[in-house]
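Example with several molecule types.
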Amino acid sequence: MTTPPVAETPAIAASGIVKRFGGATAVDGVSISVRPGEIHAVVGENGAGKSTLMRILAGVIAPDEGTVMVNGTHIDRGAKASLDAGIALVHQELSLVGEMTVAENIVLGTTPTALGFIRKKKVASIAAEALAEIGVSVDLKEPISRLSVSLRQFVEIARAVARKPRVLILDEPTATLTPAETDYLLTMLQRLAASGIAIIYISHRIPEVFRICTSVTILRDGKLVETTPIADTTPSAVIDAMVGRELKLDLQVRRTASPGDVVLAARGIRAHNVNGVDLEVRARQIVGLGGLVGAGRTELVRAIVGADPRQAGTVTLTVDGVAHPIGSYGSAVRAGIGYVPEERRTDGLALSMSVADNVALPNRHTLSRWGILRLGAISTFVTNLADVVGLRPPQILREVGEYSGGNQQKVVIAKWLGREPKLIILDEPTRGVDVGAKAEIHRLVRELADKGAAVLVVSSDLPELLELSGLIHVVRDGRIMGTLAGVEADEKSVMSLASGETMVGA
Amino acid sequence: MAEKESLTEVIAIAEGATHDPGIEKKRFNFLVWVSERGIVVFTIVLILFAVIFVNGFASLPNITDVFYRAAPIGIVAVGMTFVVISANYLDLSVVAQVATAAVIFIGVSNEYGLLASFAVALLVAMLYGVVNGVAVGYFKANAVIVTLSTTFIGLGLLRWISGGSIFFGPEDGPIRLFGQVKIGPVPLSALVLLVITVILWWVLTRTNFGFTVRAYGSNKEATRLAGVNTGLVVIGAFVITALAAMVAGFVLAAFSNTAVSAMADGYDFRALAAIIIGGTSVFGGKGSVLRTLLGVIFVSVLTNILVLSGIGFGFQQMAIGALIVAAVSVDALARRAAKK
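Resulting structure tokens for the full complex:
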């Protein structure tokens, strides 16, 4: 067992941190200490208190009890004091200003000025230096809104690095990245750590943790389960400690149902970031769309359903031998297409409304008579669906915003299940969802296909894509670069089709 | 529970319900309480205060007067609640709509009879609703700018056509009669406010249309992606507002038996005051027509107290302005507190 040298002062040390939100204790007596040059993983299921703990470390919120020491000295409360002490937090939600340039975003909050005027050359040099440090090339004058989501993530990291932090905290930085980009990020973090920065790394993805981290802190229900050197543990032991139970995901479930007739036929689809795609999905078939983030998969499915305008191409949905042309999004919904968008909080749910309202919305015509809502019918309808998707707790009058990410995603799926869709399109159905909910969502998707629906899944989670799909189309630059049958596809074959180009940049 | 096959479900049952509550517990927060329930308590306290301490408040003529003044602004406010809940801020053009309707009711009925005036007023109201709704709902133009512009167009047109003159109704006309009928201390106009409130409450909470208005206000994109024709939703919200403004124009005209283009000046802001003080969120999605009615009662009683206490119009304006700042701040702070 490798023991750290006792004399070395931790770069950051928090002890006995307690944070209560009303009656609920989000963080309960957690201590954590990270030495310079160490990459320390913090893992736990959704709601385990990881993000809250990180926000306390970064001074964004104040703890009810406990102390945070940086380099052996106490720091004052408040985000400013923490920043000054050298703690940089890369948020889970991107916090860049879309209309401002890459350089302006990197120096935002620490903009160098002379007599109140911005020193433009200094801004450019700071930004260029930070981007060089993380090895990403991007035009400094480019507005953030024109960058892909993954590039924004790297700019966000550059912003943190530009502050020359002593401690760098990353909250799920790989959630929006593809495997190749993730790979790049992990290597970069190892390089930053080697230069003496203490890194705290939060991730749902256990293999990443085992690749780069030196030790791991496991949280469950706000409590510290254990902190252990990576060398002394195994992935399955970490997962067991996270969930507090033995969880065996049977990744080898292969569906045997044979595909039926063609339900969705898309021909010559062109749209922003989509350059001529032909696509078919059959009844009882799950088709996966693989590829890197920014490859145009989201744009493709949005163009297919008509959520965004198409420049060219036709889409038909064939139900019981009758072909319905799909033009507008409204015609897609009427014909029986269900669309679960990538961003559930902004595009999928009305967060301030109840579960019942959200589920009833796309089903309002069957749940009303002469334009008047049938409240009893809504209640029965939603209660049934809440049971089908496994909403916990099944309180349909609760605001959706109060539920955890996994439950929210189940609500988005329930919205469309009630319409018995002929085709359901799911874009990143399990992003930011804990392992338990993920397994349930996979079960729901399979059941839908087994009942005869055509299913189209976009996923950057390779194991998920491989596990679900009977057929995988790999998308790059808005085109289908190759198609793999589910049985012959593996991570390597999908990735070699998806990449074949330089990583980030340009 | 036997039909549950999912592994995680089995585990969840084995673990007991305490492991994963799946929900962030709501804590008591004073600001959230004020924004959600405050108006009921404040209105009751204010009325009790007025009855006990304010000389002349609890007299029948005074109560009738409060009703008379509350009715037109209240009718505008309950209608405009639809626009606010749909997250389109407000409809400034109610100023032009109410005045136009009042001038039509008096002016056109003087010439062509009451029925004709109703037909014209209805047509004009629909036009206002559709123009505002199309610009905001389909062209995605900013509601404040659009309705500010339609106010200018509408008032300009009204002044041009009417020549800026004051219209008087006949002393024995049906409009005058309507304005004078009372049931006990309650004027007919207050009953109209009550009936419209109940109808609009029902439309907002129990109909498909009202449901989509609330959903749209809560999240526009999610509502569009649920297959809702969101342009129609916005048009509907503006049409409801315009129809209510038309009725308010009738009630206002009946109150004084006169009509002039400047008679509804300030109605935009006073209606917004009632809506916001009632606790309907300017962020959209949250609120109700009943809350607006409470807001109207609160503002009307407060104004009446200030008048009875001999406090001038300038101070009344200040008080309403300060109340709105307070209400909007509480709303914003409560949203933040609820998010934590």
